[in-house]
Every structure is written in C-alpha cells, then in structure tokens.
Write a structure and sequence with these properties.
Length: 334
C-alpha cells in the first residue's frame, strides 16, 4: 500500500493531518527518542552522523525500534534521518547516490515496520491501534553541523536564506520521493531557517503535509532569541505547513509554549519534548533529571493536550515506556 496521504492538489492536502488526528480521537501520539533506544540495543552512535550511522551499520536495529514504538501505541513514527544528510554521508566517503539510497532506506524501514505491525494487529481485530503514519525526519542545518547551533540558532553571517534552501533541497526531494506520509522538520532554531523551509516547500511543490518544530532553550523564545510571534508569522502564511510546535526542549517549558502557540497560530500544535535530563557536554553524559520521569511526563502531557496540543510525543531520552504512558492517558481518558 502506498502513502496514506496522496494529495493531488492543495484542497486535498490541507486538512489531511487534522483528519487523521480527528480519527485518532483528537490527539495523536508521536514516538519517542530514537538514538536513546538504539543505544539500549547496543548500537554505537557516538559519531557526527549520530543515529543515521545505523542506516549503514545496523538497519535491523532501526526496524526493531520502530516496532517497539508502534507496540507502545505511537500513531506516528519518525524516521531515522534526523542527522542523515547528503554532505554528511559524502564526508564519510560515500557517493551521492549511496547517500540518497540511505535516505530512501530510512523511509522504507519505517514504512515496512508500520505495514508489518499493522498486518499483525489487523488480525487481532479488537485493538486500540490506529494505522500509523510515517514522518520523515529532517533535522535543522545546525543538526548537520553537529556543533550545537541547533540550540543557539547562530549560523553566522555567511549563512543566508539561499544557502539554507540549498542545504535542504536535495534531501527533501529524495525523502518526498521515498513516500512518507508527513515531513517532520525538527529542532529549527531561528526564523531564517523556518522561512527557508516554507519557501522550499512551495518551490518544490511538495504535496504531503509538513510540521515544523522549534527547539527552545529559555522556554519563551526560539534559540536564536527571536520571538515565536515573529517565527510563526512566516509559517502561518504557508498552506503547506499543517503543524508547528516544539521538540527537544525540556518538558517543563512546554505548557506555556503551547498556550503561546495557541494564540499565535491556527495550525495543529505539535510537541515532543525531551525527558528533561540535561547533557553534560564536558563529561559527555546525561545528568539524571531530578523531577522528571515517565509518570510526571504523562501528567504534564494531559495539560499540553488540554491547552490545545494535538500531536504529542517524546524526543531525546524518552523511551517506549514514555510513549506507552502517553498513549494510555491521552487516548483513553479524554
Ligand atoms: Zn531530542
């Protein structure tokens, strides 16, 4: 079976994601941390390509993680392409063609996992699963640089709109061609990149819906210091973007940001924060979170839903157990 969303024109495309959310009961669940789970299964991802390294070395682990999230109740699984970029693969000695094949593979692995899982649950008959959507992950330019700029928003003076569009263009084309249901632009740190993506979707005439999520380091603004008011003004004009929101920020920031976004946009609000643990860049390890765990996360998530978020999941350091908790409280207690 092909993609769920196959729009022939704008009328068909707009609202497709909202329809799916409606069918899922008003709130759909996104999966959780990918790299975290790959590491649990023994993958070595200490590399600038991060989880994209597994596309080369251990694709079976990627399939395994997708299946774990589907079993946990994810309505949307996000592909392993966050840090998979063509220049990144080329710098590892791969050809352009090999890099493109790996991007395609990231979508194929997720689609195959979704289809296998759906075949299995369909046989059961009485179950609470929805046929999941596959969201192709597209990390920010900063994620490719792997220098932390996805959390500072500082790309420097020589990075302009055209450079960002050029960076995103070919990967976008390859991923769209591979047939995901949605495009998930993640940890976008500034207005310039949001604008580049909105313009690119238009120029490339992309017919599947997209969401764009920003990171936030202060809980108020985009990492660049620009206000979300400014950032969303750019995105609100685009009919190709169905969702906007926040990913990979600490969960304690999310409630007030959902309230803010609700005032600033009519688009679907998407949130998938990290676990609230902090990365110690000197010791190279995660510092345990003092007050966040799966129970706390799911309690907070009901507040995010109640204030208007319609797509909710987890980012770094969240696990299938987090998603199982979300699925329980968000799907069955509204
Ligand atoms: Zn994250």
């Amino acid at each position: 079976m092909g993609v769920l969303f196959e729009a022939k024109n704008e009328e068909q495309r707009v609202g497709m994601l909202e329809n799916y959310i409606e069918k899922a009961g008003g709130c759909a669940i996104i999966d959780g941390g990918f790299a975290t789970q790959l590491e649990i299964h023994g993958a070595d991802i200490n590399d600038p390509l991060w989880s994209a390294l597994c596309l080369i070395n251990s694709p079976h682990l990627i399939s395994k993680v997708h299946l774990e999230y589907l079993e946990a109740g994810a309505d949307i699984i996000v592909t392993s392409s966050y840090q998979a970029t063509l220049p990144g693969f080329i710098s590892r000695g791969l050809s352009l063609e090999q890099g493109e094949k790996l991007l395609e593979k990231s979508v194929k692995l997720a689609r195959d996992a979704r289809d296998v899982f759906w075949k299995t649950v369909e046989k059961i008959g009485d179950h609470s699963y929805n046929r999941a959507l596959v969201a192709a992950s597209i990390g920010s330019y900063g994620a490719y640089l792997a220098d932390g700029s996805e959390y500072s928003g500082c790309y420097g003076d020589n990075v302009d709109l055209e450079k960002l569009k050029d960076f995103h263009r070919r990967r976008l084309q390859v991923l769209v061609e591979a047939g995901p249901d949605i495009l998930a632009f993640e940890t976008i740190p500034n207005k310039l990149e949001a604008q580049a993506i909105a313009e690119l979707l238009e120029e490339e005439n992309v017919q599947i819906p997209s969401w764009i999520c920003f990171s936030s380091v202060d809980g108020v603004n985009a990492p660049s210091g620009e206000s979300f008011d400014d950032c969303l003004k750019v995105l609100n004009k685009s009919k190709r973007i169905e969702g906007v929101g926040i990913n990979c920020a600490p969960p304690q920031f999310v409630h007030s940001l959902v309230q803010k976004f609700k005032e600033l946009t009519g688009k679907v609000i998407v949130v998938y924060p990290n676990s609230g643990e902090t990365w110690d860049g000197i010791q190279k390890r995660w510092l345990p979170s003092k007050c966040f765990n799966d129970d706390k996360f799911k309690v907070l998530a009901t507040r995010w839903r109640d204030s208007g978020a319609k797509l909710i999941g987890g980012c770094c350091r969240t696990t299938p157990s987090t998603v199982r908790g979300l699925s329980k409280v968000l799907k069955h207690s509204s």
